[in-house]
Amino acid sequence: MNTIDLSAAMPLQTFRALAEPTRIELLAMLMRAGGQANVGTLTDAMSVDGSVVSRHLRELHRAGLLDVERRGRERWYSINYDAFISQFSDLVRQFEALRDGKPCCK
């Protein structure tokens, strides 16, 4: 049996970042907010401590899925649309190749 390396299609850090329900909830909140929000706004809408929200946002940022900008004393996070589109497009292409009987994973 051949081993498939999905990290060739999408970095493992992205899979790890998206494997946490709180991070998915934060992404959904950012989407509802038009793609960006500050930490305080996100924390107010969550049922967890601000330090937990900040930690999850940092993980999404490290995975390249969010951009962060300092505005005075606040940190604003925004969705990195290009990263999402690129990474998910690569993954979809790999699945399409497999479906069509072609070799997988770059």
Automatic annotation (TrEMBL):
InterPro entries: ArsR-like_HTH, HTH_ArsR_DNA-bd_dom, HTH_MetalResp_TranReg, WH-like_DNA-bd_sf, WH_DNA-bd_sf. One of its GO terms (molecular function) is DNA binding. Keywords: DNA-binding, Transcription, Transcription regulation. Pfam families: HTH_20. Residues 3-99 form the HTH arsR-type domain. This is Helix-turn-helix transcriptional regulator. It comes from Lujinxingia vulgaris.
